[in-house]
Amino acid sequence: MRKKIVAGNWKMNNNLNQAIDLTAQILSSKINTTTEIILIPSFPFLQLVAESCKNSMIKVGAQNCNKNEKGAFTGEVSCQMLNSVGVQYVLVGHSERRALFQESNKDLVEKVNSCLTNNINPIYCCGEHLEERNNNHHFETVKTQLVEGLFHLTDNQIKSTIIAYEPVWAIGTGVTATPSQAQEMHQFIRQLLNERYGESIAESLSILYGGSCNASNAKELFSLKDVDGGLIGGASLVAKDFIAIANSF
Ligand code: PEP
Prior knowledge:
Distance between the termini: 14 Å
Strand content: 15-25%
Shape: globular
Oligomer: single chain
Largest sheet: 8 strands, parallel, barrel
Order of helices and strands: EHEHEHEHHEHHHEHHEHEH
Bound molecules: phosphoenolpyruvate
């Protein structure tokens, strides 16, 4: 059975006290034990959140990594460093990084590789812009992102990854993909995995939906056959909403 996962991408939000509070509220809440929870705070709070979650079921992820191991890369953080503070996941290819920091699929290959070398599971993000969907290019866009950025991995390596489908037009906009749009794209992604890696791997990988997922729409989205949970932005900053989403399976 595929893992059910809810990951909270805090983006560049929360100061130290807010990060402590939010983590404590989540840790003290009742969450379905079959759901894997991943908290994804900013770099300064990773160690603290990882320490706080050490004896719980909650895992910690980072929002970005540098592809290099170490060296003269001022302002950057490597997977080796992330691993050393207890980080188990890294978001790779979030649309904000693709758009604001010009990350290409080629860059993402190296980030994914660095994650795996350092025992970190990449959460590989893909998704089309509105214009691409309106021009009926959304399948092609997502396919290219996956083929160029992720499908170089071997069978064994791909098993350590999570895919997040996040239509760019739904991120932070309050507009959510309809259940049929979400299911159709998740099914398409699983079919691509099937063609590249075979049925058993395709059926075992978790594919998360992201884009204005909230406490009101999570249940319907998570009930879809090929949706295995969510990557949550805005709603992950409010403990009760995040917990409600995590309990929406
Ligand atoms: C995201 O940034 O990954 C995201 C899904 O954001 P939001 O839930 O706010 O749309």
